[in-house]
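Can anyone check this?
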Amino acid sequence: MDEDQTLRFSLRLPKEVHDRLTASANDRGNSVNAELLRLIDKGLEKEKALEPDKTLVEQLLPPALVWRVNRYMASSGVRSAEEAAKRLIKIALDEKESTKDILEKLDESFKNEKDLRLLARDVIAAHSAVTNIKYGLDYVWFITKNNESGAINKRGKLFYSDDGSEWEYNMGMFHPQGSAPKPATSRWNAPESDLDEEVPF
């Protein structure tokens, strides 16, 4: 190593660390100085590998979009360009989805989560197209930017209106894709039997 490419400085080490460094140097046939340099280099490489790729957004997007992502990052207080890009992509995808898409997500999520407040938090409130949510004793109702409304009740039944109807005003039942409409009435306020099957007398 050239003398003009090196710096000299004193380093204070605890005796235990010095002993371990000396043992490691002996095991590898290195001088203590060479072993110290090897370990520092190895540690720095490992640290670098653990760091997030801070240039991922710059690698994936053209400069004009990188500028917009950075602008959004600064205005929203987001800490990284990657997180800002994720949020912007979600907002853009949400804008493309309809109220019926939200209802489809609710239907899928209800298979694993029956708590309506958690569903409202994770599916409805998280969607950028939703402008209002109303909680009832046994339902959650919401309205979207395009003035469509949707709802889910405690039994997982879904309701939809293309004119922003409130929960109590005649919303139609919504059947997700792939599910067959049930022969029951299609209005929210029809009485529901607590029995699994109607008794035929």
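Reply from J.R.: I decoded it. The mean pLDDT is 80.
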